[in-house]
Design goal:
- The complex is a heterodimer.
- Chain A is of the alpha+beta class.
- Chain A folds into three domains: 1-174, 2-Layer Sandwich (Alpha-Beta Plaits); 176-242, 5' to 3' exonuclease, C-terminal subdomain (DNA polymerase, domain 1, Orthogonal Bundle); 248-414, 2-Layer Sandwich (Dna Ligase, domain 1).
- Helices cover 39% and strands 19% of the residues of chain A.
- Chain A has helices at residues 17-25, 52-56, 65-71, 82-97, 117-120, 123-137, 152-160, 177-180, 192-200, 206-210, 214-221, 224-233, 261-281, 312-329, 361-381, and strands at 9-14, 34-37, 46-47, 49-50, 63-64, 76-79, 104-107, 110-114, 144-149, 167-169, 248-253, 284-295, 299-309, 336-344, 347-348.
- In chain A, the strands form four sheets. Chain A has a five-stranded mixed sheet.
- In chain A, helix 11 (214-221) crosses helix 12 (224-233) and helix 13 (261-281) runs antiparallel to helix 14.
- The longest helix of chain A has 21 residues, at 261-281.
- Chain B has one domain (3-70).
- A three-stranded antiparallel sheet of chain B has the order 2-1-3.
- The chains are: A alpha+beta, B alpha+beta.
- The interface between A and B is large, with 49 and 28 residues.
């Protein structure tokens, strides 16, 4: 494995991304402690992102709203605007790409770039160019912290040290001194459970971790991840391999007044159609459908095989079968707090594998044509104008438009 | 100077999508670069800021000015065991 002798990677992390985008877009929020919340209809939720002014009051991400209000009574709670964050992400990415090619987008607010040899000796100038570009063309309220190091992991850890709006450069010749100052919990991939496991093995600090051997970390992790982390921390050129898609799905927490079976059923249909649309867009068939329901003190989930399909009719027929079973097995009057649908066992949509025991090719071709026509109509009018059966969006909006580490929704996911 | 003033339509991959959002009615459409390139040399050599000015909302009766965005169709890579 190669061990770079100079800084080769840049890791850029936007500071309090959702909150700073809100402040950039809405002047009334500037300079005020802002907390972004999933819904504005309840206080029984958490702050999913906060501004630097809120952080100064001790507010952290994923803090319950009631606790945040106790710490900072003046906090302005803003319901999330996923479409705004998505648009900001694309605009920022375009501006950064004009300075340096983006190697990988890691999430909506994190990206990494491979440095050109010309930038190896002048990382500060590169960081200044990126920051100036964002400030001048997007706005001064969205700032980022940048780390430079031999590999992505070290650059990410370095970038976290000088937030907000900082630049940290960890040259291989200076390592491991600055790394040894970092708490174990600040290393991506070391959560509370792993930290306990490390403590059990006598590893309490970064210095302890640094002195281990690759195979020792492999044993502690129980898989190759620990060994990979060792090499990354020691400055080797190692990074996550690009993963392939394994499923399409959507989940939703239902508002307190919409937790009956009838509403849950309607929302699950909508979520499934949205998942199927994404699957078609990305060119896949699904061979299995899964429905899961979270009740107050129980969970119900079940899967069903699908005959390698991608049209809405087949997916919805599978869902109806699952609901029939759920209705038989769920207690009467069950309240469904959270639900999800997942299309699995994906295969490329280059050709449909026919089932020896199901003579459905003609029917499927017909339904695929109908579904394609529906997709085209919806694209033409830029909203859901046609759907198979009722179209009942859940309260709170943005169904199917959730932003996650592995997914940045497209505008059409909000239709 | 923003990225729209620096990139010509011909610089983009023909398979790339451009997201077109109406500033008036907020509807969003997707245009393939290849489809725009077929509109002739004036479009081919136009900078994206000029492309943005030439496009209009296609919704019946709207014809509002639009905002364009380049879509990175690649999936986010995510983290594997914490490694970015």
């Amino acid at each position: 494995m190669r061990k770079p002798e100079t800084i080769e990677r840049l890791y850029l992390d936007f500071d309090g991304f959702f909150a700073s985008v809100e402040q950039q877009a809405r002047p009334a929020l500037r300079g005020r402690p802002v907390g972004v919340v999933p819904f504005d209809s309840t206080v029984y939720t958490c702050v999913i992102a906060c501004s630097k002014e809120a952080k100064r009051h001790g507010i952290t991400n994923v803090m319950p709203v009631l606790e945040a209000k106790q710490k900072c009574p003046d906090i302005v709670l803003v319901p999330q605007s996923p479409d705004l964050y998505r648009r900001a992400h694309h605009a920022l990415l375009s501006e950064i790409s004009a300075v340096i090619p983006v190697d990988a987008v890691k999430s909506i607010d994190e990206l990494t770039c491979k440095l050109e040899p010309a930038d190896w000796n002048a990382p500060e100038a590169l960081a200044r160019r990126i920051k100036a570009r964002i400030r001048d063309n997007i706005g001064p309220y969205i700032t980022c912290s940048i780390g430079f190091a031999a590999n992505r992991l070290l650059a990410k850890i370095a970038g976290k040290l000088d937030k907000p709006d900082g630049v940290t450069i960890w040259h291989p010749r200076d390592m491991p001194a600055p790394l040894l100052e970092v708490p174990l919990a600040d290393v991506s991939g070391i959560g509370r459970r792993l930290e306990r496991r490390l403590q059990g093995a006598g590893i309490f600090t970064m210095s302890d971790l640094w002195r281990t051997q690759p195979k020792q970390l492999r044993n502690i992790w129980g898989n190759v991840t620990g060994e990979r982390l060792w090499y990354a921390l020691h400055g080797y050129d190692i990074q996550a391999a690009a993963s392939s898609r394994g499923m399409f799905g959507h989940g939703r927490v239902l508002p307190p007044d919409s937790r009956d079976i009838q509403n849950a059923h309607a929302y699950s249909r909508l979520l499934l159609v949205k998942a199927a649309r994404r699957m078609r867009r990305d060119g896949f068939y699904a061979g299995r459908l899964w429905l899961w329901l979270s009740l107050r003190s129980a969970r119900w989930s079940q899967g069903i095989p699908l005959p390698i399909v991608r049209d809405d009719q087949a997916c919805l027929a599978g869902l109806e079968t699952l609901w029939k079973t759920a209705l038989r097995e769920l207690p009467p009057g069950a309240k469904i707090i959270r639900l999800g649908v997942t299309l699995l066992d994906l295969s490329p949509a280059t050709g449909r594998q026919l089932d020896m025991f199901v003579n459905d090719d003609a029917a499927r071709r017909r339904w695929e044509s109908i579904t394609l026509a529906i997709d085209r109509l919806n694209a033409k009018y830029a909203k859901t104008v046609v759907s198979l059966g009722p179209w009942t969006p859940p309260p709170g909006g943005y169904a199917g438009g959730k932003i996650s580490y592995t997914r940045i929704p497209r505008a059409e996911d909000f239709w | 100077m923003t990225w729209k003033d620096e990139i010509q339509l011909r610089d983009l991959d023909p398979g790339q999508s451009i997201e077109v959002t109406c500033r008036r009615c907020a509807r969003t459409y997707y245009k393939q670069v290849s489809a725009l390139l077929e509109q002739g040399d004036t479009m081919r050599y136009a900078y994206l800021a000029e492309v943005e000015k030439r496009l209009a909302c296609t919704y019946r009766g709207c014809h509002g000015a639009v905002r364009i965005a380049l879509l990175d169709d690649a999936e986010t890579e995510g983290f594997v065991g914490g490694l970015p």
